[in-house]
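Example record

The entry below shows one chain as it appears in the dataset: sequence first, then C-alpha cells.
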Amino acid sequence: MAKSKNRHDLMEEIEGDPFLDDPEAEVAEAEITEEAVVADETAALRAEIADLKDRLLRALGALAQVLGIGERDRALDNATDVVRETAPGLVEGIELTRRELLNAFERNKIQKVEPRPGERFDPKLHQAMFEAPVPGTKAGDIIQVMSPGFTIADRLLRPAQVGVSAGGPAMPSA
C-alpha cells in the first residue's frame, strides 16, 4: 500500500528540485515563453500581411480589367491618325462592329440618346457628371456630352452622361 506524503515530505521534494531552486532557470523559462509568444504573433502578422497583399493585388487586377474595358469601348475615339494609317483594317473592323451593334439595337427598339450642347438638362434622360459656370449659358443647359445614353421602348437603359451649366458669372453692378 502506498504511503501518502505529508507536507514535510513534499517540501523536501520541492526544495531538492534544482530547477525550482534556481532563479535563473525561472527567468530562462519566462524568456522561452515570451519568445514563443512573440514568434506566434510574428507568424500571425506575416499571415495577415500576406492575405492583405493578396487582396490588394486582386483588387488592382479587377480595377485594371475595368479600366481596360473602358479603353476598348472607346477605341475609335482614341485612334490617332498614325493608328488609322498603320492599321486601317483594325479601325475598319471596329467601325463595322460599332455599326452592327447599333443596327442590332435599332432592331430591338433600343434608341441612342445623344443630347447636344445647349439643350436643357433632363434628369429622366441625362446624368450630370459635373456642373460649371459658363458665360453666355443659362443654368441647366448641357455644355458637354461625355457619352450617349440608350432607351428601349421609351424606358431609360442608360442615361447620357453630360456636363451642365451652373449659369454665367454674375455681372457686377454699376
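Notes for this example: Residues 8-61 form one domain. The mean pLDDT is 78.
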